[in-house]
Write a structure and sequence with these properties.
This protein has 166 residues and is mainly beta. The protein is built from 2 helices and 9 strands; from the N terminus they run E-E-E-E-E-E-H-E-E-E-H. Strands 4, 5, 6, 7, 8 and 9 form a 6-stranded mixed sheet that branches. The model has no long low-confidence stretch (mean pLDDT 95).
Length: 166
Amino acid sequence: MSDPKFCLQCGNGLAPHEEEGRTRMRCGACGWVHYGNPTPVVAAIVEHRLEGEVSASVVLVRNQGWPEKWFGLVTGFLEANETPREGVLRELKEELGLDGTIVSLVGVYAFTLRNEVIIAYHVQATGEIVRGAELADHKRVPIEKVRPWPFGTGEALKDWLEARGH
């Protein structure tokens, strides 16, 4: 994410400034500082079981505009006046049309590439998946076959699988 070029308080230009051991963008006219704090994102490791199935699968999703082979966890930005638990269940409903139950907090992960902090939960869900408009595709992967990726929400999936003995 790039730094803003203009002050949100007075509209004058911003310039790099050393502060508290970090370089931040600061307005020379009014002193306003852009801290560039990370954006909170919620993520769900969705354990999904269809009626009559003995074992569950993990649901992975592909957002609109992603390459054909890219799949990830259900994710979304935390909204104002919403707890992370509420946010992850809202995203599950928006993206997959499912109601879920939070089993546990998996962890909190820095995703510095996108200046985000990911709050990941293990969520159990049942029922028929009805994809929301922001998804291009989804797939159900048996838990024993799902493999994490080396960045972003993949770290949460890795920790969840390790905690399960995989």
